[in-house]
């Protein structure tokens, strides 16, 4: 029995899609069409059925179809093991997103317990060679797939840190103003660090136990400066000791927001940042697949996968291997590409969708493989 999939997706005034509807089964979804037709917009809609800001991290008002800007709505029928949920994500005239599950208002955390969604998009191809922020975000998405409460810890930490940074910028030196905030940061920060380490252990196990055509990556969590205190008490003490230095900098210089994800191509012993472009892409694919395998093993269902233009960056052999692994996982992977020939190896193992554009309006058509 399939673990997690969308059986229906409906869009209204979302990005280039004035309206659109897909009826689906649990098989992978192969989406093809010309550049600019609205393929990425389609999978962005699916990404919003999970916690966070979606694969583009866009504001609600930026997702509204132009020029109408009337607001937008996404509805998905989500099957998770034996349960079925109707999930609605909507924004009215640029207002913040609203979440409804089975007709009732819900939180982002509720989405994490229903739909676990992972993605790989072209913007992530430079993950290993750009700044640490993108790698932290990548790690936190993986972590949240295992531990949906991780998002709450991250929000609590960020809120307390913003208040502490405001004190630092105002050059407030009275320690009493900092104590409560640092206690909140320490408790949430220690949880964030522990969650990340747990996720990395699960990913490592999933890579070691699988035979795959994609190279394994050895991952480690490092700090951009110094060492990350392990427990809440140690982090609270580190924050207190760092106040003078932080006052000079005008910001907090210790904590999980200073962490970085370090990756090594295991078979070659080469840091991911020094690998070729193709190897870096293959390492990312490997991590996404390992994440999916770990979820399938420990939670009974692989996540929904969103792989934007992934086929175009793989040779035919590795592309076929990717499709075989996705089908073996029984994951509903939404994959985009410019032409149907990129999905030839999938054949009837996938459902095929054609996206076209007419005068700025996207049209979705389901078709036979």
Secondary structure elements and their pairing?
Blueprint: E1 4-14, E2 17-23, E3 29-32, H1 39-47, E4 71-80, E5 83-92, E6 98-101, E7 104-105, H2 108-114, E8 117-120, H3 132-146, H4 150-169, H5 176-208, E9 217-223, H6 232-241, H7 243-249, E10 259-265, E11 270-271, H8 277-299, E12 304-307, H9 316-329, E13 333-337, E14 351-358, E15 361-367
Parallel strand pairs: 3-13, 3-14, 8-12, 12-13
Antiparallel strand pairs: 1-2, 1-4, 4-5, 5-6, 6-7, 9-10, 10-11, 14-15
Helix pairs in contact: 3-5, 4-5, 5-6, 5-8, 8-9
What does this structure look like?
With 369 residues, this protein is of the alpha/beta class. Helices cover 37% and strands 25% of the residues. The radius of gyration is 22 Å and the shape is globular. The protein starts with a strand and ends with a strand. The model has no long low-confidence stretch (mean pLDDT 93).
Mean pLDDT: 93
Distance between the termini: 23 Å
Number of domains: 2
Q: How does CATH name the architecture of the largest domain?
A: 3-Layer(aba) Sandwich
Q: Helicity range of the residues?
A: 25-40%
CATH topology heading of the largest domain: Rossmann fold
- How many strands, what sense, and barrel or not for the largest sheet? 6 strands, antiparallel
In short:
By secondary structure, the protein is of the alpha/beta class. 37% of the residues lie in helices and 25% in strands.
Defining traits:
single chain, 369 residues, alpha/beta, Rossmann fold, Glutathione S-transferase Yfyf (Class Pi), Chain A, domain 2, 2 domains, six-stranded antiparallel β-sheet, 9 helices, globular
């Amino acid at each position: 029995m399939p673990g997690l999939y969308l059986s229906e997706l409906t869009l209204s005034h979302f990005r280039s899609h004035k309206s659109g509807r897909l009826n689906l089964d649990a098989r992978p979804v192969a989406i093809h069409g010309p550049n600019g037709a609205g393929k990425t917009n389609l999978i962005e809609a699916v990404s919003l059925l999970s916690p966070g800001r979606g694969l583009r991290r866009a504001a609600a008002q930026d997702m509204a179809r132009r020029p109408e800007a009337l607001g937008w709505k996404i509805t998905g029928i989500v099957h998770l093991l034996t349960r079925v949920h109707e999930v609605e994500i909507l924004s009215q005239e640029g207002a913040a997103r609203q979440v409804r599950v089975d007709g009732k208002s819900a939180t982002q955390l509720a989405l994490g317990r229903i739909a676990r969604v992972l993605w790989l998009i072209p913007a992530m191809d430079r993950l290993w060679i750009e700044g640490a922020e993108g790698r932290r975000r990548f790690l936190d998405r993986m972590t949240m797939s295992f531990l949906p409460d991780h998002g709450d810890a991250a929000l609590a930490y960020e809120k307390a840190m913003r208040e502490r940074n405001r004190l630092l910028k105002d050059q407030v030196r009275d320690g009493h103003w900092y104590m409560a905030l640092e206690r909140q940061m320490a408790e949430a920060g220690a949880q964030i660090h522990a969650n990340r380490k747990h996720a990395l252990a699960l990913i490592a196990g999933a890579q070691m136990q699988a035979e795959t055509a994609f190279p394994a990556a050895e991952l480690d969590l490092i700090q951009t400066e110094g060492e990350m205190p392990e427990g809440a008490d140690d982090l609270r003490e580190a924050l207190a000791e760092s106040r003078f230095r932080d006052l000079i900098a005008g910001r907090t210089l210790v904590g999980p927001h200073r962490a970085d994800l370090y990756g090594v191509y295991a078979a070659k012993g080469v840091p991911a940042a020094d690998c070729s472009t193709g190897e870096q892409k293959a390492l990312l694919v490997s991590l996404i697949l390992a994440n999916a395998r770990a979820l399938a093993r420990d939670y009974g269902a692989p996540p929904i996968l969103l792989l934007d233009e992934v086929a175009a960056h793989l040779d035919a052999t590795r592309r076929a291997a990717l499709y075989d692994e996705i089908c073996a996982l029984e994951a509903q992977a939404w994959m985009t590409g410019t032409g149907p020939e990129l999905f030839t190896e999938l054949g009837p193992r996938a459902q095929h969708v054609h996206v076209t554009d007419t005068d700025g309006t996207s049209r979705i058509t389901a078709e036979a493989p």
